[in-house]
């Protein structure tokens, strides 16, 4: 049964955020809100968490997992970014974008695309997510909470708790966060390739 955390959307309760971070460190798989939609999240090195996300979403090994980062300095530890790409990403963060980039040695091999050796990264614009990342001190390994054969992600914490109670360890609820996933931009080839149009404006990448 998943624990249910009711978190204030503008002033997250420090004690509650600390409890959620502790559960992640203990290998919990959580559902949490972002600036685009709900996501599944676990500890960066959690093999169990990765396999559970794959099972819930029925993902194959070509799926790009995302490292949700607190800031640009943290993001830079996990991906290689040249000057032109740096400026483009810097101008778009925090925001509803996921960027695919070559992974550094800090990224566990099991998280990297098996052929491209790339990984997704993002810096969300969401108060609760930022508070959690600051408390955790490292990125959250994440994937959009979009269930197989469904067109839109779930938007309500109580609904997620009701439907996924048996496969999650915790649900973080801070209100509705929308249904549109992030815009995905692939920079792994040096030029911007729009992989998915979502919540983030694609104009600057076209």
Automatic annotation (TrEMBL):
<protein>
    <submittedName>
        <fullName>Translation factor Sua5</fullName>
    </submittedName>
</protein>
<dbReference type="Pfam" id="PF01300">
    <property type="entry name" value="Sua5_yciO_yrdC"/>
</dbReference>
<feature type="domain" description="YrdC-like">
    <location>
        <begin position="14"/>
        <end position="200"/>
    </location>
</feature>
<dbReference type="InterPro" id="IPR006070">
    <property type="entry name" value="Sua5-like_dom"/>
</dbReference>
<dbReference type="GO" id="GO:0003725">
    <property type="term" value="F:double-stranded RNA binding"/>
</dbReference>
<dbReference type="InterPro" id="IPR052532">
    <property type="entry name" value="SUA5_domain"/>
</dbReference>
<dbReference type="InterPro" id="IPR017945">
    <property type="entry name" value="DHBP_synth_RibB-like_a/b_dom"/>
</dbReference>
